[in-house]
Amino acid sequence: MQSTIEAWVEDLLAEVTDAVSSDEFQRWLDIQSRFHDCSHRNTLLITKQCPHATQVAGYRTWLEEQAMSPS
Q1: Whole-angstrom distance, CA of residue 9 vs CA of residue 48
Q2: What is the pLDDT of residue 13?
Q3: What does DSSP assign to residue 56?
Q4: What is the C-alpha to C-alpha distance for residues 67 and 46, in angstroms, rounded to an integer?
Q5: pLDDT digits (tens, 9 = 90+) for 15-67
Q6: What string of DSSP letters covers 20-55?
Q7: Domain containing 8: what range?
Q8: How many domains does the chain fold into?
Q9: Packing angle of the helix pair 40-49, 23-34 (nearest 10 deg)
Q10: Dihedral of CA 18/21/22/24: which sign?
Q11: Which pTM value belongs to this model?
């Protein structure tokens, strides 16, 4: 049993090391660093809609801007 657990831990460590060094994980970290206040779901939506976005506004900010803009 002990050897099985040790083998699982070694496999897990190898998988984590591979994941952390991957380009995909680095891109995800970059996105999360730009939108750290947003949920994971919202960061995925932002990335799909505008991959190079650096800022986003919330719904209330959007409403305020709509109210101030000339119709």
Answers
A1: 35
A2: 94
A3: -
A4: 24
A5: 999 888 899 888 888 989 999 889 989 999 998 999 889 888 888 998 998 88
A6: HTSHHHHHHHHHHHHTTTS-HHHHHHHHHH-TT---
A7: 2-68
A8: 1
A9: 100
A10: positive
A11: 0.57
